[in-house]
Design goal:
This protein is 30% helix and 24% strand. The protein has 587 residues and is of the alpha+beta class.
Length: 587
């Protein structure tokens, strides 16, 4: 018999009754029923009930151990009495009558209960993450993560992709976030950067002739935490392909995502091809570039109606370059005044000046803040535009274009919460396409890249030379699921002449481009294939599959919201010797 176990704690069934077994695990719970001790023994596979009779030597040993101590028990498998069968667990028909018990490790008093999923402050959980990871829900999430990664690898390899590893110590790259810098001991005053993404390296692999690359890649960005973003580091399914169009990339990725989501859930999953929504349409109809498609509520632009209206407040906003956006929905026309006042307060919190209403009650009465100021023809035009009837409510925000879009997008999500509009148990995927190549920096007024600077502009060199930069679109795309961005991607700019011109528009000289991206530019000058890719976030995929609202619930050892590792006490002070070796001084 093995020194620690013949079976795992989740293995035993009614067919094992009468056999001699040995189990090792953690004391999950203890119960004393008139001297008869019951112990739930747990390992990663499950729980088995152990019975210890008072007259056995094992009784005094188990009586002293605390929960979460590690013990090894040897005994015989018994059938539980019918009235004691636990149908909620796979081992619920059997129990083990303990003959010997050995304590492998004694546990101190716990900072929080492991057996119960009680609410515990997050900082306490992260400080004792090794205990937190013993809890059933979190353990299931981490195992799900492992299985998802295995499935992704299997599906990528089946499509002919090769897995390569790219460097961790590299140079700084303009990926849109702050770098983590690593000081060089051998080159005083110089620094490596941890990769925000393997962007340049995966493109260089395409130039090297490797047709299809993927990697479960660690990425490092000095960003603030959010519910769907872990600070410091994250993992992504990094993908690059040669001799492909945007459609080829979509086709390769859609099958992988649909397959993984179907493998690990019984929820409805969008079948390929996923809907494709141009960026401008997404901003208009959903108020953001990551729309939640689990409910069909779209924003409409009604600036043209108010441009001709006698209502001077909204007409003036349109004449000054602003817009009027409208949401039309059923189900709230008979709500109280307070309901609409609360909605307006929410809109103001998001930056709007107000939220106007036009309510067509079920009885045919017209109410709301715009009921009196608007003419009958304006009301009819808006009603027709909204395809509204009695029982509909129209909500309006009039403001500068980007603010109006953002506010209405947040009101759309707020209404989905209030009215429970989201379709349950569904994963709704879509592609957001045709992102702008450039935007204007709000602080400096300069033209800057909107997203990935290595993207191919639509129209190539001709567009860069003849068009207003702010109207040029790029072959850039995002994959979105249930309102969460899983990945950005692009067809890459593989032509040095086009790249120099694209960077020049954003204020980079040719010398700067050569200095910052010399490796990639030099490679492109020796023959580069058209190529493209993307990198869906592994953490966010698992978060969706586990139906968790916070990404830290699917990461084994995450940092807290302040980018601190409370378990390992990082970041920490460096010793004087370390600083001297690195030629650094703390000021």
């Amino acid at each position: 018999m093995h020194v620690f176990r013949t079976h795992k704690c989740g293995d035993l069934r009614i067919s094992d009754v009468g056999t001699q077994v040995r189990l090792s695990g953690w004391v999950h719970r203890k119960r004393d029923l008139g001297g008869l001790l019951f112990v739930d023994l747990r390992d990663v596979s499950g729980i088995t009930q152990i019975v210890i009779n008072p007259q056995t030597p094992a009784h005094s040993i188990v009586d002293q151990v605390r929960v979460e101590s590690v013990i090894t028990i040897t005994g015989k498998v018994l059938k539980r009495p019918d009235e004691n069968v636990n149908k909620k667990t796979p081992t619920g028909e059997v129990e083990i009558e303990a003959e010997t018990v050995e304590v492998q490790s004694s546990a101190d008093v716990l900072p929080f209960p492991v057996a119960d999923e009680a609410n515990v402050p997050e900082n306490t959980r992260l400080s004792y993450r090794f205990l937190d990871l013993r809890r059933k829900k979190l353990q299931e999430n981490v195992i799900l993560r492992s299985k998802v990664i295995s499935s992704l690898r299997r599906r990528m390899i089946a499509q002919g992709f090769n897995e390569f590893q790219t460097p961790i110590l590299t140079s700084s790259s303009p990926e849109g976030a702050r770098d983590y810098l690593v000081p060089s001991r051998l080159y005083p005053g110089k620094f490596y950067a941890l990769p925000q993404a393997p962007q340049q390296f995966k493109q260089l692999l395409m130039v090297s002739g490797f047709d299809r690359y993927f990697q479960i890649a660690p990425c490092f960005r000095d960003e603030d935490a959010r519910a769907d973003r872990s600070p410091g580091e994250f993992y992504q399914l990094d993908i690059e392909m040669s001799f492909v169009t945007q459609d080829d990339v979509f086709n390769a990725v859609e099958g992988v995502l649909e397959g993984v989501f179907k493998e690990f859930t019984d929820w409805e999953v969008t079948p390929p091809p996923f809907p494709r929504i141009p960026f401008d349409d997404a901003m208009l109809h959903y108020g953001c570039d990551k729309p939640d498609l689990r409910f069909d509520l779209q924003i409409e632009d009604v600036s043209d109606i108010f441009a001709k209206s006698e209502f001077k407040a909204f007409r003036g906003i349109v004449e000054n370059g602003g817009v009027v956006r409208m949401l039309a929905l059923e189900g709230i026309s008979d709500k109280s005044r307070k309901y609409f006042d609360d909605l307006e307060s929410f809109a103001k919190e998001q930056g709007a000046k107000g939220l106007a209403t036009l309510i067509f009650t079920s009885s045919g009465e017209i109410k709301g803040t715009l009921a009196k100021p608007l003419s009958a023809s304006d009301k009819d035009a808006l009603k027709e535009k909204a395809k509204a009837s009695n029982g509909y409510t129209l909500l309006f925000v009039a403001d500068e274009k980007s603010l109006a879009a953002s506010v209405m997008g947040k009101i759309r999500l707020k209404l989905a919460d209030l009215l429970e509009l989201r379709k349950p148990k569904s994963y709704k995927f879509c592609w957001i396409t045709d992102f702008p190549m450039y935007e204007r920096d709000k602080e400096t007024g300069e033209i800057i890249f909107s997203h990935n600077p290595f993207s191919m502009p639509q129209g190539g060199m001709e567009a860069l030379e003849t068009k207003d930069p702010l109207v040029i679109k790029a072959f850039q795309y995002d994959i979105v699921c249930n309102g969460i961005e899983l990945s950005s991607g692009a067809i890459r700019n593989h032509r040095p002449d086009i790249m120099y011109k694209a960077f020049a528009i954003a204020g980079y000289s040719q010398e700067e481009v050569d200095r910052k991206f010399g490796g990639m530019i030099r490679a492109f000058k020796f023959g580069a294939p058209p190529h493209g890719g993307l990198a869906p976030g592994v953490d966010r995929m698992v978060m969706l599959l586990a139906n968790e609202p916070n990404i830290r619930e699917v990461i084994s050892f995450p940092m807290n919201q302040n980018a601190q590792d409370l378990l390992m006490n990082a970041p920490c002070d460096a010793t004087v010797k370390q600083l001297q070796e690195l030629h650094l001084r703390i000021v």
